[in-house]
# Entry
Amino acid sequence: AETKAVAAAKVDARADKNSLKLDVNVFKEKIVHHLRCTIGTSEKKASKLAWWQALVATANELIFDRLTQTQYTHATKDTRAVHYLSAEFLMGRLTVNNLVSLEVYNTAKSALQELGIDINELCEEETDMALGNGGLGRLAACFMDSLATLAYPSVGYGIHYENGLFRQEIREGRQIERPDSWREYGCPWEVCRPESVQEVPIGGFVETQTAPDGSIRKVWHPEHMIKGVPWDIPVVGFRGASVTILRLWESRPTESFNWDVFNAGGYVDAQNEKAAVETISKVLYPNDSTEAGKMLRLTQQYFFSSCSLRDILRRYNRTHFHDYGEFAKKIAIQLNDTHPVIAIPELMRLLVDEEGISWDAAWEIVTEVFSYTNHTLLPEALEKWPVYIFEKLLPRHLEIIYEINYRFLNEVVEAKWSGDDEKKRKLSIIEEGPCKMVRMANLAVIASRKINGVAEIHSKLVRENLFPEFSTLWPDRFCNVTNGVTPRRWMLACNPGLAELYNEIAGKDWPLHLDSCAALRPYADDPQIQKRFMDIKFKNKVALAAEIKKLCGVEVDPHAMFDVQIKRLHEYKRQHLNLLYILHLYRKLLADPAMRIVPQVFIFGAKAAPAYTLAKNIIYAINVIGDKINNDYRIRNQLKVVFMPNYRVSLAEKIIPAADISEQISTAGYEASGTSNMKFSMNGALTLGTMDGANIEIVAEAGVENNFIFGMSVKDVQELKAKGYNPWDFYNSNQDLRAVVDWLDSDFFTEDRQALASIKHSLLEGGDPYMVLADFASYCAAHKRAEEMYADKARWAHAAIMNSASMGKFSSDRSIEDYVHNIWKLKNYEIKDEI
Ligand code: H2P
# Structure
């Protein structure tokens, strides 16, 4: 029974929480209290960073209380939960989002104002959590937001990288990579959980033991143990619906491992071994340069997958005491791409070797709990690991993989295509050849209950082109879940002007029911609403212009059309197609000095994988060409080109609300979905894009007439490829195209002619693998249509409104509901203040 004192304390705590939410004075007192008693400084001395830390400490009072309530509800109800395993979570900054979700943003803002502090300035103190490369990692972050908001029992699992994606500096037009030590001075949002530390074995050899009864047992004698230390980052659901956690594992040497060597006098060795283990969670791999650290990358994947599974088993066994009969009822595990697929043999190993369950029973469990999301068809991103690496690092897992493969080929494939060795060769988990490889995607498909792509067209290509035989074998396993993004971050928090308009037109619940934004559609031709909508856009453009001035030193006119391409730099995303068009416009302006065009600002943001030379040359080209254009008085400021350095979540939040044109120009069939395309449309930009990924679904909602679609379709691309694509045909037959491609091979823009010429070379001698030249003419025509529409203000406003108001489908809440109903089969729970 509760003592009176405890009961009274609870009542106080609740009253405290409410006043903290509502009362500016209380909030102010709390911040000052934390500044003094948590951070240990005073108002006079405090730096901005200290004030920010005090603000976070204040928010954490509400967050941790809600987290405790959430975990209590889930534990007492023994809920079924999803465990989202992802090597990447691109969380960005948390302050504004958390304050908005807790509904204390305005209180905090006023409280700080009274203390003489601008909340925006404080929020700039926070370093982005950049634990991901691009769309895949940001999708995982949006999903965490939706899971918490919809109050589904869930845990995100990943790696606590010491360094996130590199910080990009631009020097003389070139990308320089700098380490991103996002938590150099600690991250006040995260909590270490020593009580949930795990130990993971690695290396060594497997011994086959024969018992007296003749049965065979496999015993793994690992070479090392690695300690996994969990750090929890609370994820706050909108209006505090629930607070879930993102649990990230940090690698450390185990005490024993260190101590033995140390005792034996090997001080230096001990330090080396310590460093080797800590390396595991040191850096995030930019995903295009896997060659560099294959061993380390597989170790990372295994390390975090194993820690996460052990954590899941530990939690399950707290109430189920090693009876695995209910396991598949309580646990769903989602594999975000192939990175965590090693979890499949690891769960087999844990169940068979450590928990003593039979192979068949374990396989039944495994094939019930796992599902796999595919994010790309690019062959270089479908991971394969050399067998020799497995032999060294994970010898027992390799045996298990062989066993899974043996049974699959001899039971399943043999039953369907008897005697067809070609099929077996193709479907095998093991790829034969001079260097035998383990195909992680095949392993994922064989063990998963559901396999999904991330947009309609992509899921279709996954079935038809990537895994045709598997989808013949198991048609019901394949499904689609179109991606989505959280409207809390990507509208409400980053575009307050637009949020206010929707509050008035659609009611304040639109961030939870994005469909309700459709209430704005009937006003798409209302001059007053058009003016209001475009004024909001203009204000955002003024703010972005100031940021551009600050970061790039370039003056841009907010009245100009802001044309934006921000995403990972990759040839298939075709930043160089955009660049060829810029050259084309520039050339026309130089040829006819009297010509007047719609003033345009081309804005780029992108990081290139450090080993991807051509991608880095494209960044260089954008910069040097931009420099030339921006300083060419002859074109009278009608054209500007800026490359905003260090593209990341927090920069996207400033750019997207200010965009007029959203460039989504991948070669059809290559961009699985795209997610920035959704963010742009929500914020009233018009898509200039190919019929690829989610673009297709976006224009179906917003109206093809309100966007600018161009280029080859997936079918056209396939046909042209089958016929034999020759870029020279396009080069030779289009004068404008030839002129701009040749311009790259000149010293007009830079003395380093080689770097730009390499782009021309890839487009011609290199065979133009992503068919840039084939789509050039059509791109130019679409851009021209965009320029014409931009000149017609009412028509443009109509299209912008129709886009923004039609994005209901692309809330990540809808994606999560799809996962829940088609794959995870979860129930959500109202979280009450119970303890
Ligand atoms: C990838 C795909 C995108 C997709 C995203 C999330 C790998 O992201 O290419 O088309 O939207 O996953 O599913 P990205 O290229 O941005 O790194």
Q: What stands out?
A: Residues 133-136, 139, 375-376, 454, 483, 567-568, 671-675, 693 surround H2P (CB under 6 Å). The mean pLDDT is 95. Residues 16-77+101-125 form one domain. The first helix runs from residue 4 to 22.
